[in-house]
Write a structure and sequence with these properties.
Layout: H1 12-16, H2 22-32, H3 36-54, H4 62-69, H5 126-142, H6 147-150, H7 154-168, E1 174-179, E2 185-191, E3 196-202, E4 211-219, E5 224-229, E6 235-239, E7 247-256, E8 269-272
Antiparallel strand pairs: 1-2, 2-3, 3-6, 4-5, 4-7, 7-8
Helix pairs in contact: 3-5, 4-5, 5-7
């Protein structure tokens, strides 16, 4: 797809909800620089989604609604679950870490300054499924908002929400959470039966101007493949692009807008899956 394709105008809603693949995202961001109409549509769609998060008139599915009502803000993260007799996985992206110490970001940490160790952290869905459940409720309402002008985009948005739901509600879903070096926390919810994973963020600060948070699948040998981007917002849920396959970890780096074919900075977040 090129910036001159007439179909590119139909991607504004999917872009606002981070439902584009890396190539589509790069092409659409290039198009946005010269299309005021699409910029306005993306802005209004995001504003409506944020408003719906505060006052949604449409109820989410019962199972997700129950999870949200159980107290998304009041659930405290549980300590890491360590199997009896099993050695702790302390493999790190860079530098040693004392066993048992938390991987907290340094006070002066900036993008790429403080890689987060790969570690097997809290694996019970708990709080992270609740954060994602609230986001799914917003997606389900946002997908019907401005239906007349945005009906071209509802198919991809609805499909993305359904895929996220399938991972979060899979019987074998596991959750691994850790702090992000730039602030906030993130968790990866993965399902072997679905072959997919979702990245949920909480309190993540905006990326610096001209930069974006890019997600990667990382193999045990260290090879990285693009898995999507973290959309703007304090709380997000992103379906990772591609199959989990042989990925041994999921990482996030800060990259130039539009992303990079390979990481150019050290991870600000990385967990084993």
């Amino acid at each position: 797809m090129t910036g001159d394709s007439p179909d590119i105008h139909a991607l504004s809603g999917a872009y606002a909800l981070d439902a584009l693949d890396p190539d589509e995202r790069a092409a659409f961001e290039d198009h946005l620089r010269s299309c005021a109409s699409c910029r306005d549509e993306v802005s209004s769609f995001r504003a409506a989604t944020a408003a719906l998060a505060q006052d949604a008139a449409t109820a989410p599915p019962d199972s997700l609604r129950a999870a949200v009502l159980s107290g998304i803000r009041d659930v405290r993260p549980l300590p890491p679950v360590v199997e009896a007799g099993a050695p702790e996985d302390t493999t790190a992206v860079e530098g040693p870490r004392e066993a048992g110490s938390p991987a907290e970001p340094a006070d002066d940490a900036g993008p790429g300054d403080a890689p987060v160790p790969l570690r097997r952290a809290q694996r019970r869905p708990g709080r992270w499924l609740q954060v994602a459940a609230a986001l799914l409720a917003v997606l389900s309402v946002g997908a019907t908002w401005r239906a007349v002008s945005l009906d071209r985009q509802l198919g991809s948005v609805t499909a993305a929400a359904a895929d996220v739901t399938a991972v979060l509600t899979a019987p074998d879903a596991t959750t691994v959470s850790a702090p992000v070096a730039t602030g906030g926390r993130a968790a990866v919810v993965s399902s072997a039966s679905q072959g997919r994973a979702v990245l949920v963020t909480d309190g993540l600060p905006p990326a610096p101007a001209g930069r974006t948070y890019q997600i990667w699948f990382i193999t045990d040998s260290g090879a990285a493949s693009p898995a999507g981007f973290v959309p703007a917002g304090e709380h997000t849920a992103t379906l990772l692009a591609g199959d989990l396959g042989s990925a041994g970890a999921v990482g996030v780096t800060v990259e130039p807008d539009g992303g990079s074919p390979q990481p150019t900075t050290q991870p600000v977040y990385s967990v084993s899956v």
